[in-house]
Batch of 4 targets.
Target 1
Amino acid sequence: MDFEDDLAFCRYLAEKVGVAAIPSSFFWKDRRQGKDLVRFCFCRKDETLEEAIKRLKRLRS
């Protein structure tokens, strides 16, 4: 998978996979340094996290 930056990848995750992530570039003074990273928040029920894991594993295929 090839994405222009972390924002494009996060949009893809939300729209196509149903998993939300935060683009890490917004946390860097030089946004280019975070362009290959994303952040996830894991403050959900176990069932929600298990579903997110299933969806993210599908990205490997």
Note: DSSP finds two helices and two strands in the chain.
Target 2
Amino acid sequence: MQKKEAIVTSGKTEKSPHDQEIKFFAKVLLPLVDQYFTNHCLYFLSSPTKPLGSSGYASNKEKEMVASLFCKLAALVRHRISLFGSNAATMVSCLHILAQTLDTRTVMKSGSEMVKAGLHAFFENAAEDLEKTSENLKLGKFTHSRTQIKGFSAALEKTLLQLTQDT
């Protein structure tokens, strides 16, 4: 009770540990992951038969871990994007570099069933989200100008094409 009174009289509110964890995740961990994979992208894309850099190549298990991290972060964004608020761009940047680092071919050939299922779920969710977005565009549920919608529609079509070619 005294702690509550002290907070009220001082005019300060304490952040919950959960809020602090989210802030730490968004402000510290995501930029760290982003920078790490930016610096080591070639390592994760290299193979014994196709070296892309001088630092060797990742094992199949390491490539599986990248895929798993990508799928888990993508699922978190899909279900709880509101947690990131102004740090959403950091999350998008992190997902972008993870997607570039992802050796999907190797993971689908030799990865565990759990990681393969995670990738499959990612593409299913992406297709569902794109379909809903397309429907909303057709129904005019977005409040953007016509030129913005045309640009977005072109990007959406390109994304759909890319998703269908990669799977």
Note: Confidence is low (pLDDT under 50) at residues 1-9.
Target 3
Amino acid sequence: QLATYAAWQLRQHQQGQLPSTFSTVPTGEGSSEYGAGLEYAKATSSIDGSEVEIVSHNGAIWGYTTYLGFNQTTGKGFVVLFNSQGLRRQLNMNMNIKGEAFIAEALGTESHKDLPPSIAFGDITLWVQVALIVILLIAIALTLRTWVRRPAPSRTQRRTIITIASALILGLGTTAAIMIGVPAAIGGMTWKELLISTPDLTLNFWALAAETTILALIITARQLAWRRKTAAASG
């Protein structure tokens, strides 16, 4: 249906009929204009170097994105539907570069030569999350190991209270910062929206929140156990 609609749009524009006659306004992005739900942008033909006009429209919701475009001069049209669209892909500038080059080839135009460098911010975020998850897992394992294998050290009540308070403040504070701060930092989105849009990053954030909470509770339990043994030995 979308391809049929695109073919109709192409014929209408080539014949100078509606909606090609609707007025357009500049978009503020180079020489492109927008009108009647369509974007009109100048491009250079990859065949003879002449200037052509590309008419297009694209839209996205979490999980899906579509692109419709056609070259009025050559009659080439292009419709693409992706069942993959999310925050991580939007953050990856290299995904935009690959898409722009692919669309330009399909429509017979030159791709931009001044594209920004390929910096995959979404992937960087993902691997930082994975590194932190592994570090926290190691910290949890080492904390449990010292609790089980190491003889219980002497613990004063004051030191026990300070250690527990520090662990709970840092651990639960970090968890609260993740659960409250992350949605607020990404445009006030809800966790449900984040889970739909970028499940990998969302699940990693939840794993980090769970690990920091677990680590804080393990440290608290260990300190209480050591304090009880100290009190029993001195009593």
Note: The longest strand covers residues 51-61.
Target 4
Amino acid sequence: MEKKALALREFIKRVEDKFGGSVESIVLFGSYARGDYSEDSDIDVLIVGDVDFYEIMEIVTDILLEYGELIRSNIIRARRNPKKERQLYKNYPN
């Protein structure tokens, strides 16, 4: 299996092991998602969930040291706000 794919699998495994149910999704984007990557391309991922930036960077660093592959991660915290959801439902009746 390609080294980049192994690095990505290991990254996902470590993030899921570390944060468990706090991760809603991990999405591949950028050149690998489009299929126009080169040998020097990094791996771009979006993590949706309640995760700690610094702990993610530790995982990124470990993967870089172990596999020689850079994973650039962006984080979106997925926090629900029930009050805003109720307001949205009020504004958009069935």
Note: Confidence is low (pLDDT under 50) at residues 85-94.
